[in-house]
Amino acid sequence: MKTILVTGSSSGFGREVSVMLAKRGWQVFASMRDTAKQDRLRELADRVGAPQSALEVVPLDVASEASRAEAARHVLDATGGRLTAVLHNAGYTTTGFFEDLPTEVYRHVLETNLVGVMDLTQRVLPALRADGSARIGVVSSNAVNVPHPMFSVYAATKWALEGWCEALAIEVRPFGVDVVVFQPGNHDTGFGGATVPVLPPSSAYRGFAERALPKLTGLGRYSRGSYKASLRICDVLDRPRPPLRTRLGADDVVASWLAKFTPYSLRRRMVERLTGLGG
Ligand SMILES: NC(=O)c1ccc[n+]([C@@H]2O[C@H](COP(=O)([O-])OP(=O)(O)OC[C@H]3O[C@@H](n4cnc5c(N)ncnc54)[C@H](OP(=O)(O)O)[C@@H]3O)[C@@H](O)[C@H]2O)c1
After folding, report:
1. Is position 205 annotated as part of the catalytic site?
2. Which residues contact 52 (CB under 8 A, 6 or more apart)?
3. Does the beta carbon of 147 lie inside 6 Å of ligand 1?
4. H/E run at residue 29
5. DSSP of 153-211, one letter per residue?
6. How would you write the pLDDT of the chain (279 residues) with one tens digit per residue?
7. Ligand 1 neighbourhood includes 190 CB (under 6 angstroms)
8. CA–CA separation, 211 vs 115, rounded Å?
9. CB under 8 Å to 185, separation ≥6 — which residues?
10. 3 - beta bridge partners?
11. Percentages of the chain per state (helix, strand, coil), in multiples of 5
């Protein structure tokens, strides 16, 4: 039986992928920091006919080292030290101009989106190597293709993840472990919903923020459902030799094309126009 540890299974892609894989016969360790939210996972499982017994909810706050250690220990015990996949999906952004961000605010984003991913990977890698045909899945973002002002720390974590993945992929391949990066575009999950922009009254950026925030919120209308993207994640995780990168949606395909074939100056002007942040 294929086994997977998914982070951030309480919502969005994490919840859908956990349920879809359970329906396909995987044993899923669906982790979340607030296990009270498992009701929503279980409801979705019932709705689509995924067996509840294939979904074990594991408490995991990826920003906490103690929690990561405990969750990894539990999963390794439960699987006998042999795991088919880990999907690093949990992540969030802080919104605000970098100069305004308190250190503890951006450190928490780094711990959640980057350090937590690396640490958890180290903890489960022996079990992935033991499987011999395993994957490390990482949910990145199209923030690596298009500059994201007001999301600079979030963008930093996703760029760092992708650089780490490209190198790690080479290290672990001899053990039959593939690294797979998923780049979502703009999807209407819970992403960003609870984010309150950091904007101190004394901010030098207040005028810019007042111009940009309504425009950034307006971009939400271009988002689309997450079902197809989640299905794609499952298909790729299920493949014998998955590719390093999978772009989830037309907007990400276009953004990655722009990143490859156009100069930064052009993408910067586009973003300045879209956000009203041009100097
Ligand atoms: N949706 C998009 O448009 C989009 C675009 C690009 C990239 N992404 C990426 O997609 C991934 C999944 O996000 P989503 O779109 O599915 O949004 P979502 O519905 O907000 O899901 C994010 C998940 O991450 C969890 N999480 C956040 N901090 C955590 C922590 N410290 N410990 C454990 N879990 C934590 C959340 O748990 P709680 O319920 O407890 O908050 C939630 O389950 C993220 O990595 C995000 O960067 C999304």
Report:
1. no
2. 42, 45, 46
3. no
4. strand 27-32
5. HHHHHHHHHHHHHHHHHHHHGGGTEEEEEEEE-SB-SSTTTTPPPB--TT-TTHHHHHH
6. 999 999 999 999 999 999 999 999 999 999 999 999 999 999 999 999 999 999 999 999 999 999 999 999 999 999 999 999 999 999 999 999 999 999 999 999 999 999 999 999 999 999 999 999 999 999 999 999 999 999 999 999 999 999 999 999 999 999 999 999 999 999 999 898 777 899 999 999 999 999 898 888 888 778 889 999 999 999 999 999 999 999 998 888 999 999 999 999 999 999 999 999 987
7. yes
8. 33
9. 142, 247, 248, 249, 250, 251, 252, 255
10. 27
11. 55, 15, 30
CA distances from 236 to 3, 132, 181, 242 (A): 15, 17, 10, 6
Specify the CATH class of 3-204+224-262 in words: alpha beta
Going by C-alpha positions, the residue among 116, 125, 139, 118 that lies closest to residue 177 is 125
Q: What is the DSSP string of 95-133?
A: -B-GGG--HHHHHHHHIIIIIHHHHHHHHHHHHHHHHSS
* Helices 206-218, 264-275: inter-axial angle, 10-degree rounding: 90
Atom 47 (ligand 1) nearest CA: 91
User: Which two tokens mark 196?
Assistant: 């309150």
Tell me how far apart the alpha carbons of residues 107 and 160 are, in angstroms, rounded to a whole number. Answer: 14
56's enclosing H/E stretch is: strand 55-59
Tell me the CA–centroid distance for residue 15 and ligand 1, in Å. Answer: 10
